[in-house]
Design a protein that fits this description.
The chain is mainly alpha-helical and 201 residues long. Helices cover 56% and strands 7% of the residues.
Amino acid sequence: MSVGNKSVLNKILRDNPAEISTYLTEKFRENNPESARKALNVVMHAQNVQILARDAGLRRDALYRTFGGRIDPHLSRTLKLFGALNVKARIVPETDSSEAIAASLSEAFDREKPAMAILGLSEVVKSENVSALALRLGIMRTTVYKTFGGTVDPQLHRVLNLFAALKVRLTIEPTTRPKIRAPRPKLGRPPKVQLSDSVDG
């Protein structure tokens, strides 16, 4: 991406939940972890990172480290980032047979609490034929139980791989009740205070 295009994209995505939703939904469409990580990095850098970190409940350095595009973020931090951006995750089916799974996961994710989303993933996984699911994921059956047992915060690539195996995908939409934020600090130095030349006696 050229510097000019990046600057334009930053302006479009800055403090704009509708555009953020459209952009992330497109990048998450294929359940591709690398594409998702890069998109989260782009969206993060388009914001005032100090305020974004505060709203996500993270330190600024932790936000940069988590969504810098190099490491695989955990689901809980990804959902916290969504909340800070005034967007939320919704799970949609890719086939008629996955409609019930998508509805169940959407209900869990719609509560906007990472713990509930993690529990929702666990309930869906346990309702499946775990041996067959493990084969589709290309991991051990024990790893499926460990990753999606409801007590572990799964990494994003594991979640997206699970969505692909379940034939669902993650979409992003603006929250209906955006958070009330403190006013953004004005840029530049504060104006100088002019002192009076006369002194009262």
